Amino acid sequence: xxxxxxxxxxNFHGMELRCPRNLRLAGLQIAxxxxxxxxxxxxxxxxxxxxxxxxxxxxxxMAGEATGxxxxxxxxxxNGNLWIRDCDFNRHIFPLMHxxxxxxxxxxxxxxxxxxIHLYPRxxxxxxxxxxxxxxxQHGLLYGMLPNEALPAEWTDVPILIANARALDxxxxxxHERKD
Length: 180
Known about the structure:
The chain is mainly beta. 0% of the residues lie in helices and 52% in strands. It has strands at residues 2-3, 6-13, 16-19, 23-26, 29-32, 39-49, 53-56, 59-62, 68-73, 81-85, 88-89, 92-96, 101-105, 108-111, 117-119, 127-131, 134-137, 141-143, 160-163, 166-168, 175-177. The chain has a seven-stranded mixed sheet, with no helix packed on it. Strands 1, 2, 3, 6, 9 and 12 form a six-stranded mixed sheet that branches. β20 and β21 (175-177) form a beta hairpin. The termini are far apart.
């Protein structure tokens, strides 16, 4: 689709998976190709489902150096859950699961250009749990569109647990305890 700010640029979508109910992906490898150099932005995989979504022992990657992400979304507010565990991503992840519990554990998330995980401020989860993960990005977790954006009032009652987060600080993959 052309981008409104620059009609000569477009968004690259590698894969879209849509499911009206619960979804479980286990042991799947999704490898998106290089994005077209004219792409304004790339979504390597868009997974849309209502109900419980479990992504387990999966590897999701995108070739090349293009900016991109993996999106997890739902059609509306619901009481489902998004569990991502024992996975490996080489671009940031963007959970847009409004009203759900988002649990990410034992997962490696790398994105040298952007944040490792992006929580959109207008779709707060019911709870957010981020434990025993390894991240590598410009920002570890980004709440909002910009690093210093204020969170809306809907976030005041959202329980957030971040435990045992580790950061990759260099290209050699050295793991260091996160100080923040």
